[in-house]
Amino acid sequence: MRVVNINNPHQREACLARLCAEAYGHEAGLRPLATFAGTLAVLVEQEAARVLALVDDQARPVALALLVLDEHGSSMTVMLLAELDEQSVARPAERLVAELALKAPLRVDTQDDEQKRRFSEAGVSRWLEGRAGVHIGLGPKHPAASLEDLPQALTFDEAAVIQSFKQDRQQFDDYKARFIRGLEAFPATL
């Protein structure tokens, strides 16, 4: 098992498309496509996002994660996480988070107590209570000590991306084609 930072633009696009499809489900409307487009156009363009994979001993991806820098560049937030193969590797998403928590100043947000438990088992060692019932988990290398120390993760306006799709059919068609090509070109090994 090892973690791979996917730098090749074609592989990154394919892995991001698969991650969006897996994280949101195949019947999620425009949300996977909007996340794909916004991530590429805003976060990747600003070098504020990383797509990472946990690969097995044959270099096959078994879990994917999208990490986004905070506004100060001091930590990374897990924005999307998906398991691809639970047959060959037990709990691959947790294993990926565990590896990342050891190496990076990692943050995870969840409203789900079960996810909180799973992230805790994966090495997210400190928890803060955010607004609206959000549990904010911090890995051992995260510098924040309190909510006041916690910078915002960089993001994009998903509603604006969807609105731009409605106003610019060509842009929508281009991102849709890239998303589909990405799904079709998902690498068997990394």
General shape: globular
Overall number of strands? 7
Order of helices and strands: EHHEEEHEHEEHH
Number of helices: 6
The proportion of strand residues reads 15-25%
Tell me the helix content: 40-55%
Largest pleated sheet: 7 strands, mixed
Strand order in the largest sheet: 1-2-3-4-5-7-6
How far is the first residue's CA from the last residue's CA? 12 Å
What would your notes on this structure say?
The protein has 190 residues and is an alpha+beta fold. Helix content is 41%, strand content 22%. The chain contains six helices and seven strands; from the N terminus they run E-H-H-E-E-E-H-E-H-E-E-H-H. It has a seven-stranded mixed sheet with strand order 1-2-3-4-5-7-6, sandwiched between helices. Helix 5 crosses helix 6. The termini are close together. The model has no long low-confidence stretch (mean pLDDT 95).
Strands, helices and their partners?
Blueprint: E1 2-5, H1 9-24, H2 31-44, E2 49-55, E3 61-69, E4 76-83, H3 92-103, E5 106-110, H4 113-121, E6 126-129, E7 135-138, H5 158-167, H6 169-184
Parallel strand pairs: 4-5
Antiparallel strand pairs: 1-2, 2-3, 3-4, 5-7, 6-7
Helix pairs in contact: 1-2, 1-6, 2-5, 5-6
Quick rundown:
The chain has 190 residues and is α+β, with helices and mostly antiparallel strands. The chain is 41% helix and 22% strand.
Give me some keywords for this one.
single chain; 190 residues; alpha+beta
